[in-house]
Specification:
Strand order of the largest sheet: 1-2-3-4-5-8-10-11
Largest sheet: 8 strands, parallel, barrel
Number of helices: 11
CATH architecture: Alpha-Beta Barrel
Oligomer: single chain
Distance between the termini: 22 Å
CATH superfamily: Aldolase class I
Helix content: 40-55%
Bound molecules: zinc ion
CATH topology: TIM Barrel
């Protein structure tokens, strides 16, 4: 079934965190949903605005909905980190079931004002919203924050932001970094526990999941993370596999034979990660 984050959180209550995996190209999509089906967990397919525009909103949404409708698991389509309110409204109108407005680089009052506008528009149309307070460092498509500027989320800001905006999910900065794949993050658990206690029903979201060790991942789930994002690892592994399949290809080699192994690889990664997210 095709669902939004609120429905996924409810369905997954007491079962751990829902994995949110970044789709970088159309080709990855069926393998991502198959991975979730194999271990019977809900899945969030998320895209950057860049990927949505590259594939096209309509064909992307139509494909996700078609796969979701005949799937044995629940599937959400979520717009990751978007700073453009008009584009978010377009995503909502076209059929995304969930969106993230990222105003984390703005002063908090401006972030709240913009997020509220997105929440009002989205909720009227049955779409869920993720916001962000504090700044998750690192480089991601469309998001570049120097690591020194990354700021931990202040619990009082998080509570104020969540109460004022009515977001369904909140990205918090507790030590992870976008695009981190060479080393592992040091998670500030004291902060995570405090955030969880203050935030209650608002689903906490961990970004930069690629840079989190398996042990830390399990602990983050135990401490109450509701959505965990993994993007870099899928992109990195896809590139590694196609780098091995493409060099020996001839003009008569079907492309499906070159991309198939990469799709299998990301399916395996999603199964591994989503298994860690189970409680
Ligand atoms: Zn992120």
């Amino acid at each position: 079934m095709y669902k939004n984050l609120i429905e996924l959180f409810k369905e997954n209550e007491g079962k751990g965190a829902v994995g949110a995996f970044n789709l970088h190209c159309f080709e990855m999509l069926p393998a991502m949903i198959k991975a979730a089906e194999e271990i019977n967990v809900p899945i969030i397919i998320q895209t950057s605005l860049g990927t949505a525009e590259y594939i096209g909103f309509e064909p992307l949404i139509a494909a996700v909905k078609a796969l979701a409708e005949k799937s044995t698991v629940s599937v959400a389509l979520h717009m990751d980190h978007c700073k453009d309110i008009e584009k978010l409204k377009k995503a909502i109108d076209c059929g995304y079931s969930s969106v993230m407005y990222d105003g984390s680089s703005l002063p908090i009052e401006e972030n709240i004002k913009n997020t509220k506008e997105v929440v009002a528009y989205a909720h009227e149309r049955g779409v869920s919203v993720e916001g962000e307070v504090g700044s998750i460092g690192g480089a991601e498509e469309g998001v570049v924050v120097a690591k020194d500027d990354a700021m931990y989320t202040k619990p009082e800001d998080a509570l104020y932001f969540a109460t004022e905006t009515g977001v369904d999910a909140l990205a918090v900065s507790i030590g992870t970094t976008h695009g981190q794949y060479k080393s592992k993050a040091k998670i500030n658990y004291e902060l995570l526990i405090e955030l969880k206690a203050k935030l209650g029903d608002t689903g906490l979201v961990l970004h930069g999941g690629t840079g989190v060790s398996d042990e830390d991942m399990k602990r983050c789930v135990r401490e109450g993370m509701k959505k965990i994002n993994v993007g870099t690892e899928l992109n990195k592994s896809y590139i590694e596999v196609v780098n091995t399949t493409f060099p020996d290809a001839t003009p008569l080699t079907s492309l499906r034979n070159l991309l198939g192994p990469a799709n299998e690889k990301i399916k395996d990664i999603i199964i591994d990660k989503a298994t860690l997210f189970k409680m």
